[in-house]
């Protein structure tokens, strides 16, 4: 009795089985690009030319929290990520921060030393309304002569 040879799926020749790594490599490169761009924007935001207020004592920034930096320049404009926003536009930004970070949500306010408190208060008010309770104002150390 002779066994018939089958052709097709039941044949002895099998195609190699393996995972296609191309989509995973694409995703990794996209993540790398995303983190490079976002870290560049964060560094750029911290280097806005502001003459920070002077303080005799201060707490250093906790780098693990990575707070959202909100700047108030000499013209009393509010800047987030280098973009000018109004106090009303802060609400969804702070809401998104709270949604992403939860109870660890934190903001850091950088303002020109000569800016009056009436221009900083709307930022603090919007943070309180959004539920962000960790707010710090960036200062520079008092220089000793």
UniProtKB/TrEMBL annotation:
GO terms assigned for molecular function: transmembrane transporter activity
Subcellular location as annotated: Cell membrane
GO biological process, one term: protein transport
Main location (coarse class): membrane
UniProt KW Cell membrane keyword: yes
Annotated keywords: Cell membrane, Membrane, Protein transport, Transmembrane, Transmembrane helix, Transport
Keyword Cell membrane among UniProt keywords: yes
Matches recorded under InterPro entries: ExbD (IPR003400)
Cellular component GO terms, alphabetical: plasma membrane
Transmembrane segment boundaries: 21-42
Database matches in Gene3D superfamilies: 3.30.420.270
Membrane topology: Single-pass membrane protein; Single-pass type II membrane protein
Family the entry assigns: Belongs to the ExbD/TolR family.
Protein name, entry field: Biopolymer transport protein ExbD
Organism: Rubripirellula tenax
Lineage: Bacteria, Pseudomonadati, Planctomycetota, Planctomycetia, Pirellulales
Gene: exbD_1
């Amino acid at each position: 009795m002779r066994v018939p040879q089958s052709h097709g799926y039941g044949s002895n020749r099998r195609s190699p089985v393996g995972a296609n790594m191309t989509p995973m490599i694409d995703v990794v490169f996209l993540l790398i690009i995303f983190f490079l761009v976002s870290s560049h924007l964060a560094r750029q935001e911290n280097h806005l030319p502001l003459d920070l207020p002077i303080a005799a004592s201060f707490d250093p920034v906790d780098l693990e929290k990575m707070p959202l930096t909100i700047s108030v320049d000499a013209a009393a404009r509010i800047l987030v990520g280098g973009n000018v926003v109004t106090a009303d536009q802060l609400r969804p930004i702070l809401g998104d921060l709270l949604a992403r970070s939860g109870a660890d949500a934190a903001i850091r306010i950088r303002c020109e030393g000569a800016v009056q408190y009436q221009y900083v208060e709307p930022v603090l008010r919007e943070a309180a309304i959004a539920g962000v309770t960790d707010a710090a104002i960036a200062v520079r150390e008092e220089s000793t002569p």
